[in-house]
Design a protein that fits this description.
Order of helices and strands: HEEHEHEHHEHEHEHEH
Largest sheet: 6 strands, parallel
Radius of gyration: 21 Å
CATH topology of the largest domain: TIM Barrel
Shape: elongated
CATH architecture of the largest domain: Alpha-Beta Barrel
Number of helices: 9
CATH superfamily of the largest domain: Aldolase class I
Structural class: alpha/beta
């Protein structure tokens, strides 16, 4: 597993009255194997027991995300593709979950709606057309904000390039269409791919030449890492 969340141990235990001292702590991003010690903590017993579950909940969640991300990163090694997360995070936990993605070797997509413009099918329908949606967005946002648009076919890709989108998100396209899209977009616009990306398919998708592969599974479905706390009396 890839450890993540260690720096939260001390403040959690402190709030629980443990008067804790972290005697040793493996670095976030470190690879741990069954039986390895992630941290040694000294403190008052009552406070340690109060903080145990909260500290473990954070570390298990974050380590699970980091571990899952590392699996996807390894699957695309040797390609130009970056593995990125999505905004499919748990309420109130976005910052720590996206941090965990980085610890696993992935990259962050938008933190919020104000981090960049992502035009999807409902926005296109509301604007009347793909080109109109991009034009309205460009008129409304600062020049420093990039505009990305979701495309479902190659015709929409061509239209998005003509309308000067910065990034195109290919949604649930076939491998052959993704390859063709990369040829069309080469040197003109960044290509991101999303939609039902799995460990079994991500490598082949990466080898089409895409720039970014966004995976919601990293945060919304990562399995909690197996961690536990053991008390040793002195």
């Amino acid at each position: 597993m890839v450890l993540c969340g260690g720096p939260l141990i001390a403040p959690i235990m402190e709030r629980c009255g443990a008067q804790a001292r972290v005697a040793s702590l493996a670095a976030d991003g470190a690879i741990l194997h069954r039986g390895d010690i992630a941290a040694e903590i000294e403190g008052l017993l009552t406070g340690l027991l109060i903080g145990e579950r909260t500290a473990l909940n954070f570390m298990q969640l974050m380590s699970g995300i980091a571990t899952k991300t590392a699996q996807f990163v390894r699957a695309v090694a040797g390609t130009r593709a970056r593995i990125v997360d999505t905004r499919k995070t748990h309420p109130g936990l976005r910052a720590v979950e996206k941090y965990a993605v980085r610890m696993g070797g992935g990259f962050n997509h938008r933190f919020g709606l104000d981090s960049g413009v992502l035009i999807k099918d409902n926005h296109i329908a509301a604007a009347g057309s793909l080109s109109a949606a991009i034009m309205l967005a460009r008129e409304a946002v600062p020049h420093t904000l990039r505009i990305e648009i979701e495309c479902e076919n190659l015709a929409q890709l061509e239209a998005a390039i003509a309308a000067r989108a910065d990034v195109v998100l290919l949604d649930n396209m076939t491998l052959e269409d993704i390859r063709r899209a990369c040829q069309i977009a080469a040197g003109r616009v960044q290509i991101e791919v999303s939609g039902n990306i799995t460990l079994a398919t991500v490598g082949e998708i990466a080898r089409t030449g895409v720039d970014l592969i966004s995976v919601g599974e990293l945060t919304h479905s990562a399995r909690a890492a197996d961690l536990s706390m053991r008390i040793e009396a002195y």
